[in-house]
Amino acid sequence: MTRSELEHLADHILMAIRSRPKQFFTYTSLAKKLASEPSMIEAAVRCLIDWGYRVRRRRREAVSFLEAPDTLTTVEIQHGLKTKLIGSRVHCYRLVKSTNDLAAQLAENGAPEGTIVTSEEQSAGRGRLGRLWHSPAGTGIYVSIVLLPKFLPDRAPGLSIMTALALATVLEEYCPGDVRIKWPNDLLVSGKKCAGILTELSAERNRINHVVVGVGINVNQQGVDFPPELRTVATSLRRCTKRKVNRVSLLKEFLKQLEKEYRLYQKIGLAKSQKRLRKYSALLGRKVKLVTGAHEVSGTAVDIDTNGALIIESNGKRVPVAAGEVTVAKD
Ligand code: BTN
Fold this sequence. Notes:
The chain has helices at about 5-20, 25-35, 40-50, 75-80, 100-110, 160-175, 235-240, 245-270, 275-280, and strands at about 25, 55-60, 60-65, 90-95, 115-120, 140-145, 180, 185-190, 190-205, 210-220, 285-290, 295-305, 310-315, 315-320, 325-330. By secondary structure, it is of the alpha+beta class. The strands form three sheets. A seven-stranded mixed beta sheet has the order 4-5-6-10-9-8-7, with helices on both faces. A five-stranded antiparallel beta sheet has the order 14-13-12-11-15. The chain has a three-stranded antiparallel beta sheet with strand order 1-3-2. The relative contact order is 0.11. Bound molecules: biotin (BTN).
């Protein structure tokens, strides 16, 4: 039996034993069910253990399911995933340069909407404005989602804030009352950056080819895991909850919420989301300076409109800004 046949058998054993956790399945019954040999079942069970699954074995003749590892694999992400669109295809890697680049390539080659790419680690994770996104192995979530919206390109910037809203709703479950969105792409927990969004658009004048929404979440990093320059400005869910957080569950909750927000955004933009946007906003009521390319606007952030633009009151005028870099003036 080749390695990939063995892994395929292991996947099927996993499906069978997971369907009735705690029940013991004999190797003979599994061999019969999966048209294999008991010795092959034993080898495939060892394969599951190597992947980090916890099982109970009875005298090397029977096995039962105990626990799945917290690794981002296609099988784990799709198991019990309650979405129709987002996560319909899942590509998982151990190490890539950037999941956004891979997702863009997949989209260019015709990947269906909702395809996601994750990696345990990124060697050149990208943040906004050419910054790096620190992406150490096994502690964070690095995921990129392919979207193929039918609307015009001018509505694409709102996808970042729509994603931020989905993420804030999920993070709120972990850190109630502590989550804020720093328009348009940053998620803060206790005032420090916990997650970021990098939305990349490929479009013609009147048509979107594809959008890649890249999301990085600091999940289980501890203080020392951040490089010194990030320690005072970055945080993780673990630092706020004081416990390890299961990344697979968190990712699935996020994908589910994202699907909900995306459907709503396609129908009515952010028209019904404003109450929640105001609730989470780290900027409303604050004096800000916003830089968009060569333009600079200073004033008070007063609202977010139905396309996700930040409204700044400046010299008595309300100026909507679709994208840019915000700095909050010291009070
Ligand atoms: C930011 O806050 O500047 C945005 C950070 C976005 C990071 C994510 S991690 C997954 C995806 N792949 C990347 O290279 N970047 C995004």
